[in-house]
Amino acid sequence: MQREQLADFLRRRREAIRPEEVGIADGPRRRTSGLRREEVAMLAGMSTDYVVRLEQGRSSQPSVQLLGSLARALRLSDDERDHLFHLAGHQPPPADGVALLARAGLVRMLDLLGDTAAMVLSDLGEILAQNRTAALLTGDHVDFSGDRRYTVYRWFTDPAARAGYSDEEQEHYARRLVADLRAVAGRRSGDPTVIRLVDRLRAASSDFSRLWAEHEVAVRRADRKTILHPRVGPLLMDCETLVTPDQRQQLLVLTPADAETRERLDLLRVLGSQEFPTGSAGPPSR
Question: How much is the pTM?
Answer without folding.
Answer: 0.64
